[in-house]
Design brief:
Order of helices and strands: HHHHHHHHHHHH
Helix content: over 70%
Radius of gyration: 20 Å
Largest sheet: none
Number of helices: 12
Shape: globular
Amino acid sequence: MDLHSLVALFDSTLHPDPAVRKTAEQQLQQLEGHEGFLGVLLQMISSADLPLGTKQAASIYFKNRVRRSWHASQRALEQYPPISDGDRTATKANILAAIYASSQAIKLQLTECLGIILKFDFPEQWPQFTVHLKELLHAQDAQRVYTGLLALLELIKRYRYTSTNRDVINEIAKELFPQVQKIADQAVASDDDLAMRMAWLSFKSYLNAIQSGLPLPLQEPANLVAWGTSFIKMIEKPV
């Protein structure tokens, strides 16, 4: 799959001539089932050298491809080619890096895709995901931490309304939430815009985690006090 050819096609989807746009869209539809297509899209989206409009067009196409074909119905398979195992592996290997490298608008689109993938692949087909999350949440780079918090929220959403799989949510709470609480506490102390986003994501993840019951690690007195204190600090923060 050639990166430069795909870039040219996505540029053509933004062309003012409807005939040029239609031809480019038809060619993309022919290519989307080819091995390596999703991986190259993520390369485009992550590139610092491409125009934002091109990357946004690629991210929209990526989102639509994942949404309709990651776990496709028989009817969808009759309309769209399946996603190959190679493309699935490449997507899971690169999507967190793409979220990190992207603008805010594209981050949100890719995060939605991540949620779809987690819904069907975690934990059985992506057991190492929490290892990647832990690395991001402990990073020194604030943007990497922010990426980890975006991803964590998508993971927690997977379990927020279920009373089953409590072992999974308990393990997530044990392994990840002590660091999330520290992030929330530090973020609340700052007035930086990114810090406020990080605080919001931290609290949102906590609230989603307790929707169907308080995970066992979060029932420990030290954790109850720490999270309660962070919430109070946020409430008392001057607007």
